[in-house]
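@here heads up, posting the sequence + SMILES for the pyridoxal-5'-phosphate run so it's all in one place. Ping me if the SMILES looks off, I pulled it from an old spreadsheet.
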Amino acid sequence: MVNRSDVHYFGAGPAPLPTAVLERAAQVLLNYKDKGIGLCEISHRSPDANEILADAKHALSTLLDIPDDYEVLFLQSGGSGEFSATVYNLVAIWVEKKRAAIAGEVGDNQEEVLKRMHKAVDEELKLDYLVSGSWSLKASQEATRLVGAKHVNVALDARKSNGGKFGVIPPEDQWSLTPRASGGGPALVYYCDNETVDGVEFPAFPHALEGDDAPLVCCDMSSNFISRKVDVRKYAVIFGGAQKNIGNTGIAIVILRKSLLPPHSTPASPDLLRALNLPVGPIVLDYPTIAKNNSLYNTLPIFDVWVAGQVMSGLVNAYGAKRIGGQEEVSNDKARLIYDTLDKYSHVYRVVPDKAVRSRMNICFRVHGGDADKEKAFLAGAEKKGLLGLKGHRSVGGIRASNYNAVSMDGAKALVAYLEDYAKSS
Ligand SMILES: Cc1ncc(COP(=O)(O)O)c(C=O)c1O
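bot reply: prediction finished. Complex structure tokens:
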């Protein structure tokens, strides 16, 4: 039998979880708080479930210093569901804002309002996407599927600057963002902070998205959530699936600016959206509905929220006043160790993305120029040493070491030792 302590797992998600959390999870699955029933069996509307939800929110808010004017939502959507949710919700807000402005000009003449709305949607509705890797590409494709290509402005396609492959983030002056017209501008600007497949991470929040008239920024942080400090106020929506840094598969977490919720913002009515040939989203992705119901509009997997809460409170306890800054230091140190070793043996290893945008979370590299047999042998040798989950994503191949929070410094060092041994014997 192989024990957990015998291996270090570098899978990209689902990803490792702290052993102590899993041990407690095994207990609460059987018997939660000595009630004789397990956590998957209790009602999501029970006081216990509410407490679990509140604790998870509190831990996340503490870690990331989430301001009071932001809401935390838990959904079953996965990361991909949020590709759609951001579109449904922010397009509905854009449309209602536009309708109110037009109604202010033309008064109660519904026919005229609708006529002008058609024109406004036709000519002005834009959703901006910064495509820096496979996941933001998928998000932009989902937006296109929902609202049509003419409304989706791919303001950046990083492949165009890198011979058709992801791996760079070109300078911001080369992006073609929709202009911020007064009272206009895009319905959202979307980007993925860390591209899990391609190993590309935004080093910092883009300058081009800052300013008093900043657009509504939606950001996918699925694979670098709670791994570094984030200035939440710069974002309209931050989301991520839990299954990398936060917990087990099953929930996504959304951090949402409250001014996008009623009574501050009202989404367009389903009737108006239909009249304009725009999509009406499913109720389970409707942010106002989820927020109004404290994430309990429908059955929330409370066990998954419990795991996420345990992981996050573990970090709160571990790093104290440093909060997520403490984890950031550790994540950076582990990543630096691994990248330094890859660079040291550059005749054997080649890091795929450009140095300026290397991900601290998903370290993508090739062995011997991507020689298939040699990479296979590299992986087999790693497995023998208990270093698992290193195979690159099937769409790009190569090697990927995911350096999530639950990968220990010992794990990073064990990988480094193997990289050294392999390079020296090559
Ligand atoms: C950055 C990123 N976004 C979105 C997703 C999709 O998440 P899900 O599988 O939960 O839909 C993934 C999955 O790996 C991801 O890495």
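MO: The longest strand covers residues 70-75.
MO: One more: The first helix runs from residue 19 to 30.
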